[in-house]
Amino acid sequence: MKTVLLLTGSPGTGKTSIIRKAVATTELKAGGFYTEEVREDGRRRGFKVVTLDGQESTLADVGMKSPHRVGKYGVDIEAFDATAIPSLYRALGDKDLVVVDEIGKMELLSSPFRETITRAIESGTRVLGTITANPHPYADEIRRHPAVDTLVVTRNTRDTILDAVMQWLATIPPQSRTA
Length: 179
Known about the structure:
It is a single chain. By secondary structure, this protein is of the alpha/beta class. It has a single domain, classed as 3-Layer(aba) Sandwich (Rossmann fold). The protein is 35% helix and 30% strand. Strands 5-6-4-3-2-7-8-1-9 form a nine-stranded mixed β-sheet, with helices on both faces. Strand 5 and strand 6 (73-75) form a beta hairpin. Helix 1 (15-25) runs parallel beside helix 5 and helix 2 packs parallel to helix 3.
């Protein structure tokens, strides 16, 4: 059984929903982060990072002035690094499961994030996350890593993928670690 399970697929297919449902129903201790849309007047304005222990910061915004841009969004790498990376290290230190939602184009602008993901994958700790479906040199390298299994989520397969994720989680022995 591989130690890293990454979901991929087109936007809006339910990847994050699958991970949220899986983490909410497992008894495993999980840490890490989700990336959420920020909406205003029904339109996507940007994205924020929300850690499983309740911290959050802006990842990207249409109005943000930044040297880092993905499409119409300015990306705040420093805020991302200050929130996401410590959450991953805390999870690696004392959790059964590291959640990384997502390994995407914006997040991969951060060199410290790439280093932390590599460390997480090579740690032997179980990692559940999402990864961009688009070609990207680093994402492609992650997908080829021998510890990584990737499942493609579509609107038609999301229920069976949730079942597969739950089966994978059931193979993880809970640790008697302190929170």
